Amino acid sequence: MLIFPDPNVETEYTDPNGSVWEFNGTGWVRQCAGSGGDQIVDLNKLACFEITYSKAGYTLGGDANNHPMLLRGGDFTLQWWVKTSQNSFSLLNPQAKDQNKGCLGVWADGGTLFFVINTLAVNQWTWNCAPIIDRQWHHIRICRKDGVHSLYIDAVDKSAELSGSRNDTKDYNVIPPNGTFWGSSSPNSPSRGVRYAGIQIVRGFAMGQPEARELRLPFSPCTEAGAENLICVNVYEGETDLVDIGEFGNPVAIYDNPSYTLNTLDSPYTWNPPMRIYTEEELALFEEEDARRELEESMNNVTTEE
Description:
eight-stranded antiparallel sheet; mainly beta; globular; Jelly Rolls
């Protein structure tokens, strides 16, 4: 739990993870480094986008060295927020004409989550994703560490449930010639009615199993040694131009007609409300109350024994 200073004394706070928070007069908001300078991230403004047409969603771009699909041959982390009652949705969909281009993809089709390589040609592994097709927000994290895949759903390790091989030492070094889509249609079915709230791709570091408290704050760049934040995006209310707050400012642009991608105020951070953040003054009052309660209990125990 984060413990903030008394805003009457200090209006800025740096948490143990290095994130800077600012008191805006009514509450604490986190500052994130954006491509155009610092941004104030107000948890109450976090939103999502919903697909209303099969060609909607966002494209993920980048340069030849730091495109989000260039995970290379080492460790990596992929994570998303998704909310759907559809059994087909797309998390990363590389639209490559050549099925043997070596482009990875992550999508659900017919109630099965696929991690695929060489586009549609080879499945690395699959997972029965029926438990998350319930129109509730769910967090998905995929890691590769030392050549072995792990899958975490809502901070719970589901790796033992994977069908296929978890072993993977491939060098993901190909940029899909026709782009990579986040939220566009899966290969066989459209993603209509699916909501997405965030995406992060980290090269060079496997973030591992998240703690439940991590799920209560928006994605922020990974600061671990060796981590390269290829893309880190959260969605904000009323915004259709999404900004990558990772290290490279990779472009995130609406793929098709903007009217096919509905931006709405609905996020996993409001569905899973942020932890109550106490000031030092409030914490002192709670400690006094705990001490008083303990004293009363000890006195009652003495009275009972007598």
